[in-house]
Amino acid sequence: FIFTLISSASYAGVVAPKPEDAEKYIKRGQEFAAKSEHENAIKEYSTAVKVNPKNAYAYYCRAIEYQRIGKHDKAMGDFTKSIEIEPHCIIYSERASGYLWTGYYDEAISDVTSCIQMHSQWNRKIYYIRGLAYFLKGNFDKAIQDLNQDIKAEPKHWEDYFYLLIAAKATSSLSFQEALSTTKNILLQPNQGGYE
Fold this sequence. Notes:
Elements: H1 2-11, H2 22-34, H3 38-51, H4 56-68, H5 72-85, H6 89-101, H7 105-118, H8 125-137, H9 140-153, H10 158-171, H11 176-188
Helix pairs in contact: 2-3, 2-4, 3-4, 4-5, 5-6, 6-7, 6-8, 7-8, 8-9, 9-10, 10-11
């Protein structure tokens, strides 16, 4: 019976998708994602994964959509699978963000550290992620180091100054007045900058 179904599908002109067909499903997924049709995007990315389970980008795209709808466990699984196939800083940084916002601070720190080891100058925003993870763990000295790295790249990223201000108060390693003054100056400027 199974042979009959397979042979009739072959004769009907149905051709099994090839691994390179995954790209068309990814493209359709991106079109749905652009319209905030997350469930439809996930379906397309899932088809891409079925067609080519070695396509790291399909897992990455699906993970982003899972994050957008609050399915963080599934997102982390897809980020991990994507990293296993093709490690890249972008994937580490996205997974680190996911870990950060779900309270897995050590994992976030580990992912950012892996990214920095791969490309030390890749994207200073990753220092913000790790700095915030250290901050939330109460390791204010390391938080200050990373937040200062982020400030070098993005001096108007006001969140850095906010956390530096609190860390300075907690450690007394920075002048509290200096941090407060700098924070006020940044916040009072038009177009404060920061990340989008």
